[in-house]
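User: Batch of two.

Assistant: Item 1 of 2:
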Amino acid sequence: MTPIEKHNEILAGKIIKGLEKRNMAGYYCPTKEDALKKALELIPKGSTISWGGSESIKEIGLCSAVKSGDYTVYDRADAATPEENTECLRKAFYCNYYLGSSNAITYGGELVNIDGNGNRVSAYIFGPDNVILIVGLNKAVPTLEEAVSRVRNTASPKNTLRLGLDTPCANNGFCGNCLNGTICCQTVITRFSRVKDRIKIILVGESLGY
């Protein structure tokens, strides 16, 4: 085991202890391949599944795996009309499993997410029976303040570039606290899960997403 691998294991262990104190389940997988295997182990065949915007779940191959598996999947990317898109978003709240990532996670196990439409963060909070989040250790920071800063100044600027938006952060590389075309409409801090182990975090020892 290299020093980096050992450090990742130690850090993941600390975060998992923090998650457990907050009524959330944590797992550590050194690679994307391990993370995909663990995620599929957690989802029973026949489950209904949906997800919000997340590059991390795509990068480990989770979206394509469940779409080709024995599951019922609601993917808004398959919607042919705006009405079908809206219906798909609503069906997500009744799913057995909702997939995604977290924009940031603290060493103590707090999750920080910023959203535009709010469908992603609202599903994290309430609705689906289970939430599985794939989180690369590149998103781990020591404190809540650093987590919020990471989301505003690292994750959001990169996501605006991905979406082709003309915002201050897309042009300058850091948050401009804008109110025009912003994707930072809702900021949600998850510090505790009222339903034990409803939220399951798979930490990955690789850089994933933004």
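Item 2 of 2:
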Amino acid sequence: MQTLQRPLRRIHAARRGQRWAAVVAAVALLFLPGCGTVEPQPLRFDPAPWRDGETSLYRITDRNGREAGTVRYALQQTGDDGWMMARETAAQGTQETLAVHMAGEGFRPRTSLVVRTEEGVTERLSAIYDGAQVDLEMTNKRNITTVERMNVPSDVRDQWSLFMVARALPLATGYSTRLNVFSPIIGRQSRVTLTVAKPVQVDVPAGSFETWPVTLDLGDMKSELWIGVEPPHPLVKYVDGANQGAFELAEFLPAP
């Protein structure tokens, strides 16, 4: 009997060891990127990866993949050590110009202005940020101007600039953070969770790029960005969560 008990004890011990190893492995999986919940990190920006004068041109496609227009971004340094992000959009008969003036460190907005012309009629919306408040002035198609003051978190970013300033985050597989963003066009502040997946190769009209897939989760909607792994980390592709329209990089000029 004693000779049988020793092998049985060894077998039971081995099985307990296997079960323990399986439990440890299962717990470890919870902390791998893409498995379980990733704990967001405190928001921190690296220095701007772009240079003064950078421009990028994108082809716009609708949810069915049909070409719908173009959008061009330009980034210029301002005399107050800040940045001006300008965007020009021509799509489906609409012309739109957008400018967001941001601080050089942290990219908090100072002002934003959008002017949209459709069928010869122009609308205009401006936002002036001052700490925990933003002053909005809108002139509609009937040339009626309204003003409004709204309270926002003091660390808010302008939603129109989010696609570009995301390039300055310390992106890596499994990285996640949260940002407060404000959309002047609808006057709404949102809490956005940004999460990065493993690098993937993306083909766009400008070529093939290794990119970080980035999810922007607004709670009721998710949009997707693909940001180049190699500096200066260009925005390669964007898919809008609301209408499934897409921007695809057609031309990239790092600086003149």
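The first helix runs from residue 2 to 29.
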